[in-house]
Each structure stands twice: as structure tokens, then as C-alpha cells.
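Per your request, structure below.
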């Protein structure tokens, strides 16, 4: 089922904005990092920009804790502490450094590979491709990352048309029913399509890039709250490096690889 473009759709035009000189690894959206210390080493685990996306959730959790403290309802304080720990875990955003081989295609999300199917990509490239679906549980990092070096050439928000509660992100029909956002990245080896899809709990897709932006492989381009699904459409001549049941990390694990030479 083809997602009908809406007013949120953007496509690269004949005269695209001039990109910056060379891709910048997380450059435009670097943000402030929060770290944890283990022994003499410090590990970046949080970014202010990612935490900011959960500001209202944190506010509600803190209000519950404050109400519990004032009323001496300590069970409310316990809920607040657990809620805070859950949110800190959900909005964590660790630094990643994956393969820089131009033939490697990195996962766009953390999670479980649920399917690898050959199908028509009907929204942008309109050609048969191989779709790699990754399910993100509420325990996974929900930041999405660019699978290749390149430029954002297409961005479209699909509001969803399912008449009722959204489908679970593990349901194959969710890609045509639930709210979604489609991206196209054009690189030296061709174009890839990535689709962010909300799940039964998630109701918000946050874009951090726009059409015309240049991205480096592994750069953050957005996130989804909470459980969700991310699909990467790769050319049929790519070698698939994962299988259903594998767990992958966005911006780190290789999910496919371009052929060494163009297909004859």
C-alpha cells in the first residue's frame, strides 16, 4: 500500500541547498553530553537533545514524586524513582562508531530483526528492493542513525489511517496503517529508503534533519517514542549480513553490503 504524500512531504529539487563541505559526524545536532564514570574512564551515555524530547514525561514523573513527598505517600515517591530510571534508560543515546567501509550499510536502529523480504518500494524509488525490518522494544535505544554517507533527498510524514488503536510494531501491517515517516538517503552507491513507524505505545516521531542535509554514516537523524519499528530498504544486489532473530545496534552493526562491482 502506497503512503499518500501529504503537506509534510519534501523532495530534493533541481537546485538543492548547498551542503556543507563534507559530512560532519553528529555535527549539527551534537548537543550536550552527559557521562557516567567507571573507574578512571568516562562513557558518554546521554545527550541533552535526546533527553529534551522526554521533558514532559520527566516533568510528570517529578510531579508525582513531589506530591508523594509532600503528602508522605512514599509509594508515590517509589513510582517516581522507578519512572525516572525507566526514562533515563529509554532516552539514553550512547556514542557509536561503526564500519567506515563505503560498501557497508549500517543498521538505522537498535532492536530485533523481525523480517527480511523482497518487495516493491512504492513511495520514493518505486522499484523492487529488500526490506529489513527491526523491532524496537521500550528497552532499546530509540535514536535512529543514517545507514550510509550521503544526503537527505526525501522526507515525508504519513499520519496513519488505522481506525482505532495503533497496531503493534511487530505486526507486518503496521507499516501501512500506523503513523510513519519516510526518509531517502542518496550516497555514492545509490539511494536507500528508511521508514520510521510508531507502534502500539509510541505516538511521536521526531525528525532532527531536513531535505538537503548531508549526513555521515551513523549520524543521528531522529527518534521514535516508545516501542516502534524501523525499516531499511536496500537494493536487491546487496549482500544481507543479518537474519531474522538477530539483535542489532544502530550506527554500529552492518546489516547489508553493496556489491564490489556494479551488477552486470
Amino acid at each position: 500500500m502506497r503512503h499518500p504524500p501529504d503537506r509534510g512531504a519534501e523532495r530534493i529539487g533541481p537546485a538543492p541547498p548547498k551542503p556543507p563541505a563534507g559530512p560532519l559526524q553528529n555535527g549539527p545536532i551534537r548537543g550536550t553530553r552527559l557521562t557516567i564514570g567507571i573507574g578512571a574512564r568516562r562513557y558518554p551515555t546521554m545527550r541533552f537533545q535526546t533527553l529534551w524530547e522526554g521533558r514532559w514525561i520527566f516533568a510528570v514523573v517529578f510531579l508525582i514524586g513531589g506530591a508523594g513527598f509532600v503528602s508522605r505517600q512514599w509509594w508515590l515517591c517509589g513510582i517516581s524513582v522507578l519512572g525516572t530510571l525507566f526514562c533515563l534508560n529509554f532516552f539514553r543515546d550512547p556514542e557509536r562508531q561503526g564500519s567506515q567501509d563505503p560498501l557497508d550499510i549500517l543498521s538505522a536502529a537498535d532492536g530485533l530483526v523481525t523480517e527480511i523480504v523482497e518487495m516493491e518500494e512504492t513511495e520514493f524509488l518505486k522499484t523492487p528492493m529488500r526490506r529489513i525490518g527491526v523491532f524496537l522494544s521500550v528497552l532499546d535505544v530509540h535514536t535512529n542513525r543514517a545507514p550510509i554517507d550521503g544526503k537527505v533527498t526525501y522526507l515525508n510524514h504519513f499520519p496513519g489511517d488505522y481506525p482505532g488503536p495503533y497496531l503493534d510494531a511487530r505486526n507486518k501491517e503496521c507499516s501501512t496503517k500506523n503513523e510513519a515517516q519516510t526518509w531517502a538517503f542518496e550516497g555514492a552507491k545509490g539511494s536507500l529508503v528508511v521508514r520510521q513507524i510508531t507502534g502500539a505505545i509510541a505516538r511521536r516521531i521526531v525528525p532532527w534533519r531536513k531535505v538537503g542535509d548531508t549526513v555521515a554514516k551513523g549520524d543521528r537523524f531522529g527518534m521514535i517514542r516508545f516501542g516502534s519499528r524501523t525499516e531499511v530498504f536496500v537494493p536487491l544486489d546487496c549482500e544481507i549480513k543479518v537474519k531474522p532473530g538477530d539483535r542489532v545496534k544502530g550506527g554500529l552493526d552492518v546489516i547489508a553490503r553493496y556489491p564490489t562491482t556494479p551488477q552486470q
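Residues 55-71 form the longest helix (17 residues).

Regards,
D.
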